[in-house]
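Example record

The entry below shows one chain as it appears in the dataset: sequence first, then structure tokens.
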Amino acid sequence: MTDAQKQFIELEKKKNEIKKYFEELAEATQAVADELGVDGHFQDDEGTVYQIVIPTGRFVAFDKIGYQRTRREGEKKGDLSLTKARELGYVVEGK
């Protein structure tokens, strides 16, 4: 078996586990959307700001509801700009 085939098998075995994670994340996102509504927003204890949005689409499947967030430490950028987070009234570090 080639290295590529071994890697494929290893990743394929994780598929159901990963699928379950994304299903749980979608359910949690919907629960927050139910609480805050589309364009609702909040900040976590680490300072990351999240905003509930209607995604413009990714890949082939389109999510009904999604979120954007500011960058985390060590990341170059997030989906939600620091400027937008400040406009929403949050205190965030960075330019």
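Notes for this example: The chain has one domain: 3-87. The chain has a mean pLDDT of 89.
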